[in-house]
């Protein structure tokens, strides 16, 4: 217990003083919309990048401590800066094969904007997005915390670098085959973090 508290404190302290590991120096620019802090800011985030990142924090790590949640979000932001992944937050999170709805597929006169696509089940970068379950947060406190953390990480770079450049992670209770070709960075909260060799 004492070791866990000290480790968490050191991880958070390291992130807050700006340790960035092997991160690139580019900045994430979410095309910021003006939002005043102090209003009911986190009940409804208005910018898509904030919303997408908050969703990922919520579904991937809502039961984790703040360091673990920040590390999960940091992986998404690291991928945005890496040329192997899309260059915006939502596209990174929703990346994966998709199929067209049979309702729109049968109509050849629809434009691309009118067509509806769904992710292929269990083939996404982040499993919650294509697990077949509804993506509507039910835990209001956890959702609010996820939104606040997403906002802080995007706009103020809070906790950036906490994952030391990691682009992959998995929960501590699984051991996927893909991690054999990765260099382990370490454990933060309920996940183990990696970079490609």
Give the helix/strand layout:
Elements: H1 2-16, H2 48-61, H3 66-80, H4 89-93, E1 98-100, H5 102-105, E2 117-119, H6 140-156, E3 168-171, E4 182-188, E5 191-196
Antiparallel strand pairs: 1-2, 3-5, 4-5
Helix pairs in contact: 2-3, 2-6, 3-6
Task: Give the termini distance in whole angstroms.
Answer: 33 Å
Q: What is the topology, as strand order, of the major beta sheet?
A: 3-5-4
**Strand segment count:** 5
Task: Report the average pLDDT across residues.
Answer: 82
Residue stretches low in confidence (pLDDT < 50, at least 5 long) are 1-44
Order of helices and strands: HHHHEHEHEEE
Domains counted in the coordinates: how many?
A: 1
Measured as a percent range, the helix fraction is 25-40%
Tally of separate helices: 6
Name some characteristics of this structure.
single chain, 197 residues, alpha+beta, three-stranded antiparallel beta sheet, 6 helices, 5 strands, globular, disordered N terminus
Can you walk me through this structure?
- With 197 residues, this protein is α+β, with helices and mostly antiparallel strands.
- The chain has six helices and five strands; from the N terminus they run ααααβαβαβββ.
- The chain has one domain (2-196).
- Helices cover 36% and strands 12% of the residues.
- Strands 3-5-4 form a three-stranded antiparallel beta sheet. The protein has a two-stranded antiparallel sheet with strand order 1-2.
- A hairpin with a 2-residue loop joins strand 4 (182-188) and strand 5.
- Helix 2 (48-61) packs across helix 3, helix 2 crosses helix 6 (140-156) and helix 3 (66-80) crosses helix 6 (140-156).
- The protein is globular, with a radius of gyration of 18 Å.
């Amino acid at each position: 217990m004492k070791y866990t508290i000290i480790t968490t404190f050191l991880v958070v302290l390291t992130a807050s003083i700006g340790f960035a590991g092997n991160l690139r120096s580019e900045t994430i620019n979410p095309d910021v919309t003006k939002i005043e802090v102090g209003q009911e800011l986190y009940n409804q985030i208005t910018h898509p990048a904030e919303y997408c990142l908050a969703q990922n924090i919520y579904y991937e790590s809502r039961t984790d401590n703040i360091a673990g949640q920040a590390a999960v979000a940091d992986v998404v932001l690291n991928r945005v800066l890496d040329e192997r992944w899309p260059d915006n937050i939502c596209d990174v999170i929703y990346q994966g094969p998709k199929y067209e709805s049979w309702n729109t597929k049968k109509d050849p006169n629809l434009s691309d904007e009118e067509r509806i696509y769904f992710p292929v089940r269990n083939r996404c970068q982040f499993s919650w997005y294509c697990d077949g379950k509804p993506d509507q947060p039910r835990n209001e406190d956890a959702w609010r915390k996820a939104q606040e953390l997403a906002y802080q990480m995007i706009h103020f770079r809070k906790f950036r670098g906490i994952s030391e450049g990691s682009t992959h992670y998995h929960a501590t209770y699984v051991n996927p085959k893909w991690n054999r070709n990765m260099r382990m960075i370490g454990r933060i909260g309920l996940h183990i973090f990696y970079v490609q060799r």
